[in-house]
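Exercise: predict the fold of this chain.
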Amino acid sequence: MLDNYISSENNKPISLKDIPELPYNEFLETNVELLNNNSERHCVNYFGLHQNGHIRLFCCIADDITNKINVTSAIVTLGTGLPSMAAHNHNFVNYEREISENFGFQFNGHPWDKPLRYPFNRADNSRNIDNHPFFRGEHDELHEVGVGPIHAGVIEPGHFRFICNGEQIMHLEIQLGFQHRGVEHLFLKKKKLSERITLAENIAGDTTVSHTTAFANLWEGLCGYEPNRHMEFTRTLASELERIAIHTGDLAAICADIAYQLGNSVYGRLRTPIVNFFQEWGGNRLAKGLIRAGKVNYPFTEELAGKLDAVFSAYLPDFEEMTNKFTKLPSALSRLEKTGVVSYNQVLEIGTVGMAARMSGLVRDIRKSHPYNLYKDIIHHEPVIKHHGDVYSRVQLRKEEIKQSIGYARELLKSIPSSDFNTYEHSPMPDTFIVSLTEGWRGEICHCAITGSHGELALYKIKDPSFHNWMALAQAVRNNEISDFPINNKSFNLSYCGFDL
């Protein structure tokens, strides 16, 4: 089987001609065999590209032990039916839904054959969000509850369709696909590097650093450029600060959803100095403008290091005091423990990543399995793992990851690399394939690119962790009361726009 795929690594370009082209049945067998009965491998991306009147499918299976990414491809003809890989392994469910929607393929035997996003450039425009085939519960004792797509506040559009027996949730179907932003198409349309990096910053606003780092690492890899230590320092430190800020804000929101006003107020206040530090460092509280391919616009200084250390010193005592109160309060624990449970077998079958995997004992963390930037040699990351898969596990993960990230940041502050930069020539190599993985605070982010014969972008493919993890939320609420949906939803805090590209 080794001849059926080529093994690459995170941010390492490979020649398109070196990726084996397999007959589809062999392509299916290879990728299913790579995944089946192996929790240490998972599919990081699977997509298609128009090529000479056909579609070339690419599948990327990450091996979390060897740090390799195994890449295969197959040439298929439009208008044909194909046996479904998802029929053998549910990790492929959403990938095949997307490919079917984009190119018009029918995957025979697919377990949930419905449109995924309704993008503007889908193959069949007659299929639209207005006539989405929602699963129905046909029984006198069941009723449906619809939530969204319009939500209060600034939340993005998304629809939740519950089937309930009284207050008990029997089934939840989550359907996004209302925005039609066309982000991946814009990466091809926009030709300036500055335009593309701005697109990366806006894939998901709460994950600016991790998505932009994925793009910057990918672009430099395509150009054969080695970033210097200060660039890698900037990306690594900013990634951990983003994790601290969003996790803290999520703890505030979880407290709000169980009417624990003290926790909501204190965690909300604690988040503010972290995002304000981003503003002081680079002029934007979400870190937009901070990460750039081939350069750093805002070099980190010893003065900034002193200010950040002071922020941590003020943060930690209040965080510890508040967290001790919150996680020992009986009325809070009664809402958090054994609520929204997703088992190890379920997260493995779904293919979840990040917190939504680690909450149930499944070790998925790119910082350890496919390290990048300073995770390769300065930070030797060990993932925080929980085993109960409930809201309380998701709270505990955030608590422990915040303290871990502060420790990592303080370690980085001990030795700030020089901010001298080399001349950067950004000319991507022609006919090249590359995969870039980062670990955002939600989990694994994957950017893939393919260049044409002149080095131009022929494909840009983005995967936010929410692509995998929305199904975990749907599983979590089963047999819970519908009044527990908000706390379940917030404990995952998945991205609408990161999914609805």
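Check your answer against the key: The radius of gyration is 22 Å.
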